[in-house]
Automatic annotation (TrEMBL):
Molecular function, one GO term: transferase activity
SUPFAM superfamilies (alphabetical): FabD/lysophospholipase-like
Protein name: Malonyl-CoA:ACP transacylase (MAT) domain-containing protein
The organism's place on the tree of life at top rank: Eukaryota
Species assigned in the record: Medicago truncatula (Barrel medic)
Positions of the Malonyl-CoA:ACP transacylase (MAT) domain: 79-212
Length: 231
């Protein structure tokens, strides 16, 4: 899976299983676990029957549980899907060798109107890093990573054991698709619109975005205020 996500890693221990990247951090906002007590869909066949989905929506240090029964739920295995910023030229390379993964890119090309896999593998970096491209690229590549895992020995059992799926920002859409909340195609259409809207907003006003990992909120706020005062 090293070619699917550059610098990606699969973490597996008795209490959790996560697909994540070096740039991901659980300290970032917009981290929403989606509980899957009765997950019945199969991504491989792109067949998503309705399943019970419970979501915890976090805002800062505050969180709300949609259903009280989830509050005491004990997680055994979880998938964590990355957000924008985890993309790198070369990701998705292995997808060509797994039909189910390659099919996701083929469907994506029809929805997006361009060869997404070519951009993922060959770049250029500036194009892949653009919001309008990187968001659908990460959504599709993340789900393709699931198919690569499924194709490996023991992968199907690992996927079937997942009872919680999570996402960082954009990764929430990937998590919802994996959970069967909506189809791969509908999720990609949402991500496409999301990326286009955010790209338009970015182009309208001179701005920049920074991902902060490892600093607490007080230190982060101090750095921001210093930058504002020096501007």
């Amino acid at each position: 899976m090293q070619h699917l996500f550059h610098h990606s890693r699969i973490l597996h221990n008795p209490s959790s299983f996560s697909i994540s990247t070096m740039s991901s951090s659980l300290t970032l906002p917009s981290f929403s676990p989606i509980f899957l007590p009765q997950r019945t869909h199969t991504l491989k066949n792109h067949n998503f029957p309705k399943s019970r989905v419970f979501a915890t929506i976090s805002t800062g240090s505050q969180s709300s549980i949609h259903e009280a029964s989830v509050a005491d739920y004990k997680v055994s295995n979880a998938f964590l899907f990355p957000g924008q910023g985890a993309q790198a030229v070369g990701m998705g390379k292995e997808a060509q060798s797994v039909p189910a993964a390659a099919l996701l890119y083929k469907k994506a090309n029809e929805i997006l109107g361009f060869d997404l896999l070519d951009v993922c593998i060959n770049g250029p970096k500036e194009k892949l890093n653009s919001t309008v491209i990187s968001q659908p690229a990460l959504y599709v590549t993340s789900l393709a990573a699931v198919e690569l895992l499924r194709a490996r020995e023991g992968g199907e059992q690992i996927i079937d054991s997942v009872d919680v799926t999570c996402g960082l920002s954009l990764g929430e859409y990937t998590a919802l698709a994996f959970a069967g909340a909506f189809s791969f195609e509908d999720g990609l259409k949402l991500v496409k619109l999301r990326g286009e809207a955010m790209q338009d907003a970015s182009d309208a006003v001179k701005s920049a975005m920074v991902s902060v990992v490892g600093l607490d909120s007080e230190k982060s706020s101090s750095c921001v205020m210093q930058r504002i005062r020096s501007a």
